[in-house]
Amino acid sequence: MAATDRSWMLYYDSETVLPALVRGSVLAGQPQDWALSAVLFIPEMGVYWAVAALGFGVKGTFILNAVVNFLLLYGSLRLLSGLVRPERPRSRRIVGALVAFAATVFLTFLENSSRWDSFEVVSLLATGTFYGTTVLASVLSTGLAAPLAVPRASPRRRAVLEVALLVIIAVATLTNPLILAWEAVPLAFVFALLARRRITSWKLAGRLGAVLTIGAVFGLISRIPFASLITKDGPAYAKPSAAVGAGLYFLKQFSDLASTPAGTVEMGFVVALILSAVIVFRSSTRDGDVRTAVLAGMAWAAPLVVVVGMVALGGVGTRYFQPIFFAPLCLLVLVPELLAQRTLGVHWRRARVLVASIAGVCLVGSGLVALTLRDSAEALNPDIGCVDAWITSSQRTGAGRFWTIRGPKAYLRDPGQLIQVDKSFGAYQWLTNRTDYATKNVSFVLSDTEYPAPALPVGVENDPRQTIRCGRYTITDFVSPVLVIGPASTNPVP
């Protein structure tokens, strides 16, 4: 990612840099009054702050945060593998987790655009703002739920798993209610299917439904103290009247991805996994393998529920579709079963040698890449470096549109020196510290080549100004604070 255009999304993009903005604001001594979306980013902020404590700077922290997120995914897959196949040798469970993890990394390699709103959603796991912990919670929840469908499980073990699942759903709902659509609804649907086919009992399906419901209720109640931070909650995103438009939007995004060779490979791989999940689900229900049935069922049910649900609600945003990729990838933890049965014509001992060899090569490669990333962490984008150097030396405050200023603002020593405005130069209170707007007048405007500059306030058309070029960015400096930031609009355009 660091070697492709995707690096812009990882280091400088509008929403990705939120953890750095929060930390920068705290370190600058600003009062904290944030305007957030329906997502509170509580676990994500915790991980970012923990990594930032190591002192590698903003960009270095983003790199380490990405590594930590992927390692947490491996840990979640390892737990999933152990819960779905507890009776298998430990080595097979490890290999299963490694196969699923390797496939995730492989898909990440195929994603290289700078756009955060494309269907290249697997690599969003590397960020601290695109629902990475919700993905992890989904993987963990599937793993915890699979043994709960076993009719004759130990009551004590069942109670422990139910409490763990309830806690994960509650915490995930607190930070991002999207977990209910990604995991709770499809999980309940899969259990209902298994109960209908008498693979599990309706009593166990009901108990799971109760656990999910209680966890969701606790999570939603826990959001009440954070109400002042949430400027747009879940129901505000639902626009059923826009369902047709949403469907067309996602079709276009899908066709854009499929039009590239890498995108064709990625989508073909995921579709193959979903079709395989349907086959495994049918065979496991026939054989009474309930744990496998839950895992395979989620691998096709979660994508189905998410696609139908999001289109029906008129939601626009490819980041909402991450279960289409991550739920089927979880199916790969079962690959050692195929190897053990020689389904693929590979002897298990040889397979272990092959996996060990690949792991060794990966470790050596990781060490070499770490040296490259160290240099990358110290190299700030020159355009952003130019902007920040000028703003810091000016000791003044300016404004710009949301999409333009977020990258430079994240790397400023005092992020309050850049205030985000909408296209009409009014306050744009979205994923920002509302304390910024205590400053009513600014002296310069930051614009860039990707997005139009905001309209200037009335009365400054003939005021003297100077222009400073910083690559893709342009600073229009009025020297004195003659630019008045207008009030927040009820329906602002960023």
Automatic annotation (TrEMBL):
UniProt entry tagged with the keyword Transmembrane: yes
Transmembrane helix as UniProt keyword: yes
UniProt keyword annotations, A-Z: Membrane, Transmembrane, Transmembrane helix
Segments passing through the bilayer: 47-73, 94-110, 130-150, 159-174, 180-196, 208-230, 262-281, 293-314, 320-339, 351-373
Protein name as catalogued: Glycosyltransferase RgtA/B/C/D-like domain-containing protein
